[in-house]
Each structure stands twice: as structure tokens, then as C-alpha cells.
Design a protein that fits this description.
Elements lengths: L12 H10 L16 H10 L11 H12 L1
Helix pairs in contact: 2-3
The structure holds zinc ion.
């Protein structure tokens, strides 16, 4: 589980909830700028997350969509 604001990962719901109360990014959530990441790096990000999808033939925008869906 991770903080919805700053995307930092936590091991337990308890620590996550404590953190969320005081998260510095509460009012200004971090947005990953996928457009700024090179195409090959985006591909390896998808693959490193163990997604069972074929990224080889996908366009950059399609890969970004996949990564955004995985965030939730
Ligand atoms: Zn946070």
C-alpha cells in the first residue's frame, strides 16, 4: 500500500494512516510526468511491475495509460 499523495510505500495500514494525516503532499499530490520519461524506460517500468501485457507493439501513449491504471 502507498500514500495516495506522495506515492511513498508503507508496510502497514496503521503507519500509512498516521502518515496521511501529516503528508506534505496532501494538498498537492505528486503527479508522475510520464511524458518526460523515455519510451524505453516506460516499457521497462511496465515489465518490472510484472504486467502480463505485450508492450513491444504499443505506442508511448498506450503504455502511459497502462502505467496510470496501475497507480490506483
Ligand atoms: Zn504521503
Amino acid at each position: 500500500m502507498k500514500c495516495p499523495y506522495c506515492k511513498i510505500k508503507f508496510n502497514s495500514l496503521l503507519t500509512l494512516n498516521v502518515h496521511k494525516e501529516s503528508c506534505l503532499y496532501k494538498d498537492n499530490p505528486v503527479q508522475v510526468d510520464y511524458e518526460a520519461i523515455p519510451y524505453l524506460e516506460l516499457k521497462s517500468m511496465v515489465m518490472s511491475k510484472g504486467m502480463d501485457i505485450k508492450v513491444a507493439n504499443k505506442k508511448k501513449t498506450e503504455i502511459i495509460e497502462v502505467l496510470k491504471e496501475m497507480e490506483d
